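Hey, I'm writing a tutorial for new members on how sequence and structure tokens pair up, and I'd like a real worked example in the thread rather than a made-up one. If someone can provide the structure for the chain below, I'll link this post from the tutorial.
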Amino acid sequence: MAQYLVVVESDYKRGSPNYRIHTSELLDQAGAEALMAQLRAGSSDLLPAQPGAHVVDLGPGQFLRVRRRHGATVLDRVTLGEASTQ
């Protein structure tokens, strides 16, 4: 049975090293898709809602959230993919 991982890269801002990377635990497909829906809606602690943010869907397994903070553009990226071991 396939297992999936959701990776959340948040608070990317030009010239700033203060970004965060979080991953979910390994999930089945239904669990991973449910988590992606929560993240997209801003109802998950991994990526809380941000007033004024815009969500850009890049495909079924990835989206960006873009917002302005203190005059700078801030980017969050969320990616869902099938996990494998090396």
